Amino acid sequence: xxxxxxxxxxxxxxxxxxxxxxxxxxxxxxxxxxxxxxxxxxxxxxxxxxxxxxxxxxxxxxxxxxxxxxxxxxxxxxxxxxxxxxxxxxxxxxxxxxxxxxxxxxxxxxxxxxxxxxxxxxxxxxxxxxxxxxxxxxxxxxxxxxxxxxxxxxxxxxxxxxxxxxxxxxxxxxxxxxxxxxxxxxxxxxxxxxxxxxxxxxxxxxxxxxxxxxxxxxxxxxxxxxxxxxxxxxxxxxxxxxxxxxxxxxxxxxxxxxxxxxxxxxxxxxxxxxxxxxxxxxxxxxxxxxxxxxxxxxxx
Length: 300
Hints:
Blueprint: H1 2-30, E1 37-38, H2 43-52, E2 55-59, E3 65-70, E4 80-85, E5 89-90, H3 96-105, E6 111-116, H4 130-147, E7 152-157, H5 159-170, E8 175-181, H6 187-194, H7 200-203, H8 210-214, E9 221-226, H9 234-243, E10 248-253, H10 268-282, E11 293-296
Parallel strand pairs: 1-5, 4-6, 4-7, 7-8, 8-9, 9-10, 10-11
Antiparallel strand pairs: 2-3, 3-6
């Protein structure tokens, strides 16, 4: 009887161990499939779409496709530049709302907006991974910095906030400021939230340690959070903001989820964000100090 009891206990334990081991292997091998959701399109198709949006192709010094940028005026170059690093799904042209928002908030101060494309997304060749994306982003930003001395700002959306933080840490004296939308402290923190039963901090290859990278940057950081974020729990963005010691300001759209933020180009927060970043980048603050946090209960 005891042998049967022993056998009855050992077999389920072994099955559980095998299942758990299988989960570990699946996570270790296939983790990038759960992180990156690229949409591929032919370059000609995207170039036509970009043209209708008023954007032109952004190529590096060797002619390789890098992303999309607002068309330059023949009379004068825009005063400021903003490079957008998008989230983990779709492709760069899906983020046209950043072009519209910065343009509307310009108030006569023109912005050149550049939508960076990740390797393996849209029309760009390559495979998406943290090392590949970071290196491609660094190469693109370094080339922009070599073009001229106009202030360069970085925008990071969701996964892109980790990319923007990394590039800011890589060029801390040249990046004028950051706008981070629905950011996180690190991808490991988010993964641990979704897979508490797995040792994800040990298994995860894609780190995106935004908090660690921001510790090596001292410029102004604007943060926009979705109060009901259903993808990246809002507490991770709040922790990132709280832990940053440089100039910072927080906007919270209380009613918004991860994918329902109000990107209307005439929403007040656009002008407030650009105003904050420009004031801090210039080293001056006009008028009374701005509140550290703005809450929009109606999602705007």
